[in-house]
Amino acid sequence: MGDAAALSPSAAARRQKALEDDEIISGYRADLNLRKLGFTATVMVTITLDSQSDEALDAFERAAAASPSVLRCHLMSGRDDYLLIVLARSLEDYERIHRQEIASLPRVARIETAFALREVVNRAVPPGLFT
Question: How many CB atoms lie within 10 A of CB 20?
């Protein structure tokens, strides 16, 4: 980290600690090659609930967070209430996920599914953010 920012190791460590303390850095992750782990399908699932009450939103969000196949869940503006990002090993695996996990989420009125054909960009942060 220090070389790229022209900092000594101790100065880089202090800067990194300050970013962690300010919660700008909230954690560290490994970028995994999910295809090599057998996950060949990235699925975007849009969900519309039957109600936008606090109770309905809270119940859905708790259940989505507990669903092992959901990588990300975003509350959305517009026509749909939520966007889920799901990984599956195959179309058959996604059918299982749909039946056992997604269709059983509470308060769901409509589910629409789209499959990613190919990932084009995958960034952790926008380019140039730290320059």
Answer: 13
At 109, is the secondary structure helix, strand, or coil? strand
Q: Which residue has the tokens 């999910």?
A: 34
Report how many domains make up the chain.
2
Indicate whether 18 and 51 sit together in one domain: no
Q: Establish if 53 belongs to a structural domain.
A: yes
Going by C-alpha positions, the residue among 73, 113, 118, 72 that lies closest to residue 91 is 113
Residue 98 has pLDDT above 90, yes or no: yes
Letter string b/e over residues 85-116, b meaning 16 or more CB atoms within 10 A of that residue's CB:
ebbbeeeebbeebbeebbeebebbeeeeeeee
**Residue given tokens 């959901």 in the structure block:** 70
For residue 29, what pLDDT band results from cuts at 50, 70 and 90?
confident
Give the closest residue to 68 by CA, choosing from 30, 33, 104, 29.
104
Q: In the chain, how long is the greatest CA-to-CA distance?
A: 56
